[in-house]
Every structure is written in C-alpha cells, then in structure tokens.
Amino acid sequence: MAAALALLLAANIGTACALVLLDSPGGAPLARVPLPADRGFALRYTHSVTLRPVESRYVVRANLIVQTAEVFDEHGPGMATDAGPGERLQTQRGTEGTRFVLSTERPLPRLVVRLHSLPAFRLLVDDAPIDLAQWGSRAVEIRADCPAPAEAGRKAAP
To answer: In DSSP terms, which residues pair with 45 in a beta bridge?
Structure first.
C-alpha cells in the first residue's frame, strides 16, 4: 500500500509541474503550460544572423530551469564553437545534413525570451508547439511552477 501511494505521489509530482509565461518584467500571467512527467521542454527559433533553426532544450528540476542542450546546424554569433567546462560539443552527420549538439547542465536563474517576428519562437512541450509570437513583440519570462513534494501529497489526498 505504501509503495503504491509513493508511486501515485511521484506521478502527481511529475504531472503537476507547469511552465508559467509572464509578461516581463514581473507582469501579468500570459499562459500556464503543464509539463510532461520528464519535465522537459524546448524553445525553437530562427537565429537572427544565420537565419538557421536553433533548438534549446531544457528540463525543470524542482523549480529551476536547466538548459541541457542546444542544437543547431550552422555556427553564428552567440552559438558555441567550443565546449566550455562541463559541456560537450558533438558534430552529428545524418541524412538531413550536419548538426551540432552542445550538451550542458546550465541552471538559469531567469529565462526571458525577447519576442520578435523574425526569430519565430515556439515553445515545445510534449512535441506540441506553442507560437510565442501570439503575444506580439515583448519580453516573456518563462518560470517553472512545481509544487513541493509535501504540497503535491496534500493535493493528491481525497
């Protein structure tokens, strides 16, 4: 019984996490997007100089957003050309061409996206894209909202 309850609570914690999108700085909530059990999500956009696609991958741990990878097919300003300490830069060649994958564990105290029509930012949660341009040209802060384990347990109780 205790093991089943622990699994139920773990499942609720995994699905109770969400991303909250706010008008930045510190403004009104724009959206709340539930996260999958693995708490992963990505931002896809067009690089402003190379005009090539970039995907930044993240995971939420507790209430902290951690960047885990950046995937791109052409180096440009702001894109990694070498791996930093604790990072790994790989070149992958396939039928769709060459791409670079920077693997990292970069905790972000704040994740603010400055929206504009050219980058065409899309938030991907469970592979479902959300067009961030729907909120016009502005800055949007993405925050994690995950209940603490005790709080999730209280919410799961009847």
So the answer is: 54
d(CA 68, CA 105): 5
Give just the sign of the alpha carbon dihedral 99, 115, 24, 76: positive
As a whole number of angstroms, the distance between CA 86 and CA 66 comes to 14
Query: pLDDT tens, 91-102?
Result: 999 898 899 999
Q: Which two tokens stand for residue 81?
A: 């050309």
Interatomic CA distance for residues 157 and 84, integer angstroms: 45
pTM over 0.70: yes
> What is the maximum alpha-carbon separation in the chain?
57
Residues constituting the chain? 158
- Rounded CA-CA distance 27/101 in Å is 34
Question: Two tokens at 24?
Answer: 């930045």
Cα–Cα dist 28/5, whole Å: 36
* 146, 17 Cβ separation under 8 angstroms: yes
| Token digits of residue 110 | 């704040």
3-state helix, strand, coil in the chain (%, to 5): 15, 45, 35
